[in-house]
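We now fix the convention by which a protein and its fold are recorded. Here is one such record, which you should read through line by line:

>
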Amino acid sequence: MRSRSALWYILPIFIGLSVFTVGPVVASLILSFTHYGISETPTFIGTANYVELLRSSLFWQVLGNTLYYVLLYVPASIVVSLALALLIEKKIRGIAIFRTIYFLPVVTSMVAGAIIWSWLYNSDIGLLNYILSLLGITGPKWLQDPHWALPAIAIMSIWKNAGYNMMIFLAGLSTIPKDYHEAARLDGARSWYRFLYVTLPLLSPVTFFVLAVTTIGAFQVFEQTFVMTNGGPGTSTLTLSYYIWQTAFKFFDLGSASALGYLFFVLIVIVTALQFLIRRKWVVQQ
């Protein structure tokens, strides 16, 4: 009787998971082997979608854009988040206010943040170029320049998400025993060496978690490019997530979009697996 009652409790979750998660995953896998337009009947074509994508120069350019964004965003985001966590870890009066301020972008709508930053990046009336002009520097055309557009999006993303990782690092810092720092201080270690040889090693499990989660999130960048650049100028900010959306809902090629989604999935699995393999060399097991 108890097992039957338990089944009734989990039935709504099971139905929701089947209809909205497992079902679409299986359906998209099947569609990836078909030619399927929005008003067409799916036609089985085998692996033609995958072969065509791998032969496409645009696909490799989009993949390069995505990897470039990940390399720009992930290390800088982790460094900024850790620096903020170290700053607000100090027990001084009013520190809770700064914690709130730093965390506010996380709860701000991504679309709203992207619109605000689009104005900040405006080459004619934007605040950033105005500040640079006061310093005697001619600011770039941020979102109109193919060389600056993706770094500009990465900067905006760091502002948006650094507060989330900051809180994770802050929680990790609170678990480090104070005895280690006291012992290092008594041995004459300066603050930089205590950070380098005590804090960082003991924080490495948390750093690995932040690295893995941030990397996966970086690969899925979409709203920023959709709102701020629409994939441009040209194809300089066309990332995999945006390319999948464009293929499916702009060009209505659902078969190729499904194949793109699974290539995207394989890429994330490979990158994550590599991170787990490498972690043994630098993550300290406590």
Remarks:
- Residues 171 and 206 are 9 Å apart (CA to CA).
